[in-house]
């Protein structure tokens, strides 16, 4: 199996990479073998949507994310990238929704926010998934603390040892449907780097980590990308890619949050969020040049 994989990796890296973003035309995977999430454990979960596909509230979902400050969302860089057009999406193409477990519902306390700017590393590669970390800054964000339905989550500051039970959540594919209406969550375990490396070989780059179940059966999947992997109330990973979903011996691959914590901490949208879009954009661009990250200003569409 592992030998077959090795071959497969060379040829089908592209397949791996496409696995976890929701594509409306796609008929593959999700959170596999999960259970319905509870508000108390997922107040930080956001749904990232393509505005033009969200006329029917909820139908534009492409990725998950985690609120890590009042107006800052941690997600995967590939969620910001339009692979079909080979360029990044514009902030204005996205909306972020938080405070509802059912992505089609808009109960009291739901926040719908535009995106004022975004950041990713210019070393991100959609081919290798290197540096698949991204940050969105919300125009509205969490206006006042709303502990009942929306609250930020902290980043992990230390390496999480292998074998720890953590939770991954998302509206991605389930056993029954291409996307779930209800937020689902599943327990997975952190996996030793050595084990992960023996499975994914050179596909495992610095800043990546494995979590899942080696016997298969439980995993994140398409539409879960960008969502957080949580251990003891802190984000330790971001859903990035996998080879299929929930296959035995092929755990999910996550962005290792503590590896990128300094970069994530240093991204700041505070100064931008209250300026006009034009000013915000040029300020972002300046920041981007200064910090070797770029702020996205291209138009894009869906992957696959
Ligand atoms: C939302 O909450 C407010 C205040 O509690 C209430 O007046 C309003 O009817 C609620 N709206 C809905 C749609 O439940
Ligand atoms: C998931 O893990 C938590 C914490 O370890 C545990 O309390 C819970 O029972 C687990 N849920 C399932 C479905 O295994
Ligand atoms: C589904 O998850 C439960 C724990 O929540 C686990 O006991 C069971 O083996 C999993 N099912 C499959 C098919 O892997």
Description:
By secondary structure, the chain is α+β, with helices and mostly antiparallel strands. It has one domain (35-268): Thrombin, subunit H (Beta Barrel). The chain contains five helices and 17 strands. The strands form three sheets. The protein has a six-stranded antiparallel β-barrel with strand order 11-12-13-16-15-14. One 2-acetamido-2-deoxy-beta-D-glucopyranose (NAG) binds next to loops. One 2-acetamido-2-deoxy-beta-D-glucopyranose (NAG) binds at residues 33, 187, 217-218.
Low-pLDDT segments:
1-19, 23-30, 270-304
Round the Cα radius of gyration to an integer and report it: 17 Å
Distance between the termini: 27 Å
Question: Order of strands side by side in the largest beta sheet?
Answer: 11-12-13-16-15-14
Proportion of residues in helical segments: 10-25%
**Total number of distinct structural domains:** 1
N-to-C order of helices and strands? HEEEEEEEEEEEEHEEEEHHHE
Secondary-structure-based class equals alpha+beta
CATH 4th-level superfamily: Trypsin-like serine proteases
What is the class in the CATH system? Mainly Beta
- Looking at CATH, which topology would you report? Thrombin, subunit H
What number is the mean pLDDT? 82
Task: Give a short account of the largest sheet.
Answer: 6 strands, antiparallel, barrel
Record the SSE blueprint.
Layout: H1 2-18, E1 35-36, E2 45-50, E3 61-69, E4 72-75, E5 81-82, E6 87-88, E7 94-98, E8 111-121, E9 134-138, E10 154-155, E11 165-170, E12 184-190, H2 193-200, E13 208-212, E14 228-231, E15 234-241, E16 252-256, H3 261-266, H4 270-273, H5 277-291, E17 293-294
Parallel strand pairs: 10-15
Antiparallel strand pairs: 1-12, 2-3, 2-7, 3-4, 4-9, 5-6, 7-8, 8-9, 8-17, 11-12, 11-14, 12-13, 13-16, 14-15, 15-16
């Amino acid at each position: 199996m592992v030998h077959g994989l090795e071959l497969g990796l060379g040829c089908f890296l592209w397949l791996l990479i496409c696995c976890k973003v929701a594509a409306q035309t796609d008929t593959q995977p999700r959170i596999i073998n999960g259970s319905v999430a509870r508000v108390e454990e997922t107040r930080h979960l956001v749904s990232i949507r393509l505005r033009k596909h969200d006329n029917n509230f909820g139908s534009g979902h492409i990725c998950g994310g985690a609120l890590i400050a009042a107006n800052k969302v941690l997600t995967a860089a590939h969620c910001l990238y339009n692979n079909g057009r080979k360029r990044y999406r514009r902030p204005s193409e996205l909306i972020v929704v938080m405070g509802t477990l059912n992505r089609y519902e808009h109960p009291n306390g739901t926040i719908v926010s535009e995106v004022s700017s975004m950041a990713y590393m210019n070393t991100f590669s959609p081919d290798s998934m290197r540096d698949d970390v991204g940050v969105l800054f919300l125009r509205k964000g969490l206006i006042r603390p709303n502990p009942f339905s929306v609250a930020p989550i902290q980043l992990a500051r230390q390496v999480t040892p292998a074998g720890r039970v953590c939770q991954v959540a998302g509206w991605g594919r389930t056993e029954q449907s291409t996307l779930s209406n209800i937020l689902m969550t599943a327990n997975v375990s952190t996996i030793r780097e050595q084990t992960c490396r023996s499975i994914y070989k050179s596909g495992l780059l610095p800043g990546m980590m494995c979590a899942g179940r080696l016997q298969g059966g439980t995993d994140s999947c398409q539409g879960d990308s960008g969502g957080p992997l949580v251990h003891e109330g802190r984000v330790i990973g971001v859903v990035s890619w996998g080879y299929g979903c929930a296959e035995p011996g092929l755990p999910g691959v996550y962005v290792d949050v503590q590896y990128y914590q300094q970069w994530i901490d240093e991204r700041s949208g505070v100064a931008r969020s209250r300026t006009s879009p034009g000013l915000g954009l040029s300020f972002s661009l300046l920041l981007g040049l200064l910090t070797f990250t770029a702020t996205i200003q291209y138009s894009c569409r869906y992957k696959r």
